[in-house]
Amino acid sequence: MVSNLPPFGSFSTLCYAVPSYPVCNLFFHQLLGPRNSPQTIFPGQDTSNAVNLANLVSAAPVGINPECGIPRMHTGSSLGNIANIIACGLSIIATAMLILATGRRKAAVGRVELRTFLFTYLLTCIFQLLTTGSFLEQGSMALAIITSIHLGLVVMLFWQLLWNALVATQWVEDGTMSSLVPFTLFSICFFVAALYICLDTAFGFTLIWQPNNPTDLANLENITLFVFLDIWPPAAAFIFFVVMACIVMCILREVKPVLMYLLTAVLFVLSQLAYFLLNRIICERTSAKIDGSFVATILETLAVYALWGAWRSITEDSWEEPWYD
């Protein structure tokens, strides 16, 4: 029996069926490269003429021959991905408030590590606004570089989430060199590794992540990138929730933090479902005026707030002993 499922590591279905999927920006630049043909991106369109190709690229949405996509801003009456632009803006403000609130909790366990995690999340919101907001022209060098930075930050973000769970076990003392040195070094390693793979995918420095046959580009395969972006984040989140649930239930024996972490997990799962399932439906129902990415962004930020609330409920605000002041 022949399976209709795409091969492991394939982004073709995601770039076709999921609007505003940022990794597709890398493949768009790859497909416009000198080794490939733009007919893969614009099937049935006349791309032999430079003017026609330029017009198609200028208005192209995020995705590769997408079922539904929001045209680039200022193309006709398009406002870009306006709903997600607003959602990202509000998330940036909300996360900045959490960073300030975290800094005021002087005695809280994992304060420095959590604040760094929140700052990284704030950066991902900024770059998401740029990579999925339909501001920049598809296939441009600027968009490929910004997308690579965005995805590198996402990969690093989930390492930082995982380290916060390790700090909560107090296996390493939070805020000390024994915690901050490996935390920082591995953050840099995750970011640099993901950044390099993304850039090599888009620009083909080594051809390692380029297709073997330039005329057969239907699968858009990149197993390493798929593991980094689609396997690593949910795996890291799952380990985080398991560790924190064990700490709260087996050691602290408190109910409220368990409910807060459960809420965090539910919101995170709902955000992914909204992004991968609801995204295209909203795009089609609104005639490509908006898509469901704004719903996912709001749910993700609410998940971060719930996570912060759970952390706040299991940590001290300040030292009770006056001499620490």
Automatic annotation (TrEMBL):
Q: Which key words are in the record?
A: Membrane, Transmembrane, Transmembrane helix
Please indicate if the UniProt record lists Transmembrane as a keyword: yes
GO terms for biological process, alphabetical: protein folding
Q: Give a Pfam family name.
A: Chs7
Any Gene Ontology CC annotation: endoplasmic reticulum membrane
Establish whether keyword Transmembrane helix is in the entry.
yes
Any idea which GO molecular function terms this record carries? Answer: unfolded protein binding
Transmembrane residue ranges: 82-102, 114-136, 142-162, 183-211, 231-252, 259-278
Q: Which InterPro entries match?
A: Chs7
Name of the protein: Uncharacterized protein
- Its source organism is Dacryopinax primogenitus (strain DJM 731)
Q: What is the lineage of its organism?
A: Eukaryota, Fungi, Dikarya, Basidiomycota, Agaricomycotina
